[in-house]
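Session log. Operator J.P. requested a structure for one protein chain; no other inputs attached. Running the standard single-chain path with token output.
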Amino acid sequence: MSQLQGASRSLPVKLALLAATTQAVILVVLVGISEVTRDASTVTRAALFALPLLVPILIVYFLTRFIATRITTVITAAYGQLGSGDFGVRLPPRTAGADFVTVHEAFSDMAAALERSMQALRDADLERRRLFADLAHELATPTTTLLGIAHALRTDPGDTSHMLDHLEHESARLERLIADVREVAHLEDPALPMLLEPCDVGDLASRAVDRARLAGGGACELRCDAKPAPARIDPQRIDQVLANLINNAVRHAEGGTVVVTARPDGDSVRIRIEDSGAGVPDELLPELGRRLLRIDPSRSRDTGGHGLGLSIVRAIVARHGGEITFGRAAIGGLCAEVRLPATRAPSISSGS
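Structure written below.
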């Protein structure tokens, strides 16, 4: 409230008061001189001199009022449109001449920033609603199955061993989904520290490929071309990224080939995982990494997962100050490319 005390009078009134005050000072000086000189004619001349000053005072008042009204009316109307959600509104280019160019530019920048912020909020709200819808869909299957098993056990408990196998399977699947959702939420917490340390990303990639070969049992040809690529990372988290992407590539290669490369690239480290599978339609590539997205709805949840693996990968990479992109692989399928800063990103805090 104290900041608005100076706004109790309008600009025209202030300027008119300033002119009147100046006139009063001149009159006081002239009267003072007349008292010293005892010259009555000086007072008369002062009065005659003061009368013409009323004209400029009135001119200052009305001219300033006209200019201020012209400016404030347009700006007030623009703010009204802005408040109603019209973020495309702009001040007229000649609101008040060249002196107010900065006001025009500042208003345009503010309107554009508000439009970007509102679009980001709309996108976040859409993502939130889509996430809840997808999550409800993912939860529906195991919970329905569990209820069916409970009903079957209650009505016909004869083959309990078979029912208990189904119960254990569905419970484990529900537990995996909950763990993945918790992991995504955990990784998106800005307070979560990354335990950064100097590490060779190329060596991590080589070891991740070796483990995938052992797990796959030769079902897929795995190639690795990893060069020494030092970076300051959280090795456990980046190993999680590599395992997710390689396992995803092996699953979709369907007995074909998976190629993993890791090498320094300027001031970053580049990791590429390519497979020779069917790939992903180009229009869906930007959607990869969205939470609970499953490109092929017909794929079994037992083999296709819940669609959170790539979301976890994207969150880990983002926490390292890096980025992940998806495209068409040279060998026909999907190419996932991860770029990590070779040095620690300023915005990432490390644990003690």
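Operator note: The first strand starts at residue 197 and ends at 200.
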